[in-house]
Amino acid sequence: MFSWVLQCWSFTSCLCIFVTPVCLSLPLCPSLDLSVCLSHLSVFADRDGISVSSPVISTNPKESGALVTVSQWTAGEPISIFLDPNCPDYSDNFLQWETLQSSLMQALTNHNEEDWEERGLVQKLAEELKVLLGHAHNLRLEAEQLKRGQGVLDQRLDGLQSEQSRIIQVLSDTHSSVINTTTSVYDTLSLSLSVCLCLSSPVVKPRDCSDVMASGILQDGVYSVFPTHDLNGFMVYCDMTTDGGGWTVIQRREDGSVNFFRGWEAYRDGFGTTRGEHWLGLQRIFSLTRFGGFELRIDMADFDNATAFAHYGDFSVGRDSVNPEEDGYPLNVDQYSGTAGDSLLKHSGMRFTTKDRDQDQSENNCAAYYQGAWWYRNCHTSNLNGQYLRGGHASYADGVEWSSWTGWQYSLRFIEMKIRPSTRPGS
Q: Where is the Fibrinogen C-terminal domain (predicted)?
């Protein structure tokens, strides 16, 4: 056995394949682009002329064991392959080279078919890619539509939230209005009932809660009273329990539900709910006490449930005044006793001051400065209409203060001011 070593030589008009000791010549047409490379492999045959297996011809440059590989060929061009008669040992190896020629033609034909299959695959891939691009374009359009739709939904959501807030506000206002209307209707009916009872009975209409108690009513609650020279009357809360009862409540603080930082007209006419936090009104307090002879009790509690009270044996607002509003509803108070200490006597003789009517002796408006309304002097030792600050606070003297008991930086939880005639019923 011996080996044949193949070598490749490239010329302008032809490509010769030399196999020692024979040669295969492949003429190339000008229009044919064919590159033929020979793998540096060995072809084996015996010296007795017995042919071995046909040499391998392939279009795959990486195929193992290939004798000839075709790397490029223009499809559709004719190829002619012939054996060079000048090659030595031509006749002895004719059979072998004829096999080589047949294998080479078959390889080129297979390459042509592979090339068309590749082209078909590429064309199919191109068509699928075009479809995919179309889908991608449609998806982008849908995404943009969804984005615009999201914007519209966001706008509608904002609108719904605004409408919700408006409805909640309307319901809140309506709720407050219903409560106020109900309270007003109740007070009016109670007042009408009292008038009817008075008209049908020889009993004198009650001037205050002490008269209500004298008529035999001993239960705390809201009643109609008719002070002297006040034919219309008004509703008050009567305390029939504390210290013998018969007290007419003129102010109450208990939970901070009512704003007490108000102007002159509000304090003149009164505000709040009679059963809850309220200020009876300067004009009504004047109607009750204008002729003197009343006592004042102030009950108070802190946020630790400690309690105290201050009692004044002489109390009136605008006593003997012809025009109490013009006079400023001056305070008269005297004769202190109690457990809370006195924080009111220094205010006696002073006019009432609100944030919009300054009648105190300070350079500043004490009501505006200390967030309240009171008979300020310069400025106060008590501020029972101040802010409801719920216990100790960092600000100075602007809460519900009674300085002789808790100082100027503690806002009380509960305050109730109430009056009754100095001579108790039945005495």
A: 200-423
